[in-house]
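A note from the maintainers: we've had questions about how concatenated examples are separated. There is no special marker in the raw files; a new sequence line simply starts the next protein. For clarity in this README we add a label.
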Amino acid sequence: MMTNAQPSPRWKLLAPLAVAIIVALIPTPPGLAPHAWYFFAVFLGCVVGLILEPLPGAVVGLIGVTLVALLSRWVLFSPEQLAAEGFNAAGQAFSWAVSGFTNSTVWLIFGAFMFALGYEKTGLGRRISLWLVKAMGSAP
């Protein structure tokens, strides 16, 4: 069954980006490192994207992680870290970006969602339940 998916309004697509840019342009609060403030701006843009859902939530999250990894010199690492001898910003940014995928709990949840999606798409759950009703539903 095909559904006619309506495209998201343009303002919903631009709102997360606008929020992130506006927050990044606000002066950094005293006592907070500029890179942490920029990271917060990207995070807030992702939260707005998750609330408005111009794209699926997973896509919004992936865009946020990718954006932080690409802008890691200004968003993820302090000037002290960048100045350290032997510090590889690109390698560390990649390690940070994929670190969530090394957790076995994340993969367990992903697997559960994939099984649930498979049950829903194939109707297997309905078939099993009807078979159980047939097998156990007879009168004695």
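[label: protein 2]
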Amino acid sequence: MIAAGDHLPLAGYPTFNAPSEIIDSLKHVGVDIVNNATNHTLDWGAEGAYDSIQALKARDMMYVGSYESWEDAQKPRIIESKGAKVGFLSYARDANGNTISEDQGYLFSLIDEDIFPQEIKALADQTDITMVMFHTGEEYEYLPADYQLRTFRLARDAGANFVLGGHPHVVQPFINYNESQAGIFSHGNFISGQVNIENKLGSIIEVRYAFNKETKECKIDRLRLMPTYNAGSYSDYTGQVVALIDGADYGLADAQAYFDDFVYRMQTYTNKVQVVEYLD
């Protein structure tokens, strides 16, 4: 989704466009960087992508995955935290058939297996922790497709420490490669107007690294996921995101069963992840 509401009409499915004020809300809750490489990045063409970037820049919000120029695309996205340099890259599998001219390729970072591993390696050489986001996968599937597994492995081999997946609209499991590299194939929906129960369930993920300032080594200290539930309806402004474990208080009769399914599914590939009722 883009945030180009200052210059283009606000719109929902299938060509999304949000008001630019949504960026203010993100900053208010502490968001430091946003991923703007999704299958909806080009819903309003180059104009929409560019206007959305200008709205982000106007609010001093760091962004990754769609850029205003080739020069902008070459600037590494790095945030320093507690002595560690954390770098970010993001890519999407497609743009729903929307296209841009070759000379505007900077507006959309495509998952290109010949290119993204080189970019990840280049960023990893400059950082202590490298985070990579992929907008890919089959919608509504609870397990990753073979091409997702391959894409994640390529990112791992190139030096990504954590790979965050999205697009399937349901939560897919974690994978833990070693003591410093892991990922989740899909975080699912967080705020969503979709009505099927599987699409009203999402997650908040906590990834914590222990970083040794002297040796520059980083190791995964904690992988946790809190399942969430989209209660109410966003069409009548009653929608809100709550902890799934509290779903019964919002009319979700099988909240505990859904929570137990999360515990089972998230550990399909690794038992290193904790599924918790709440994040402290």
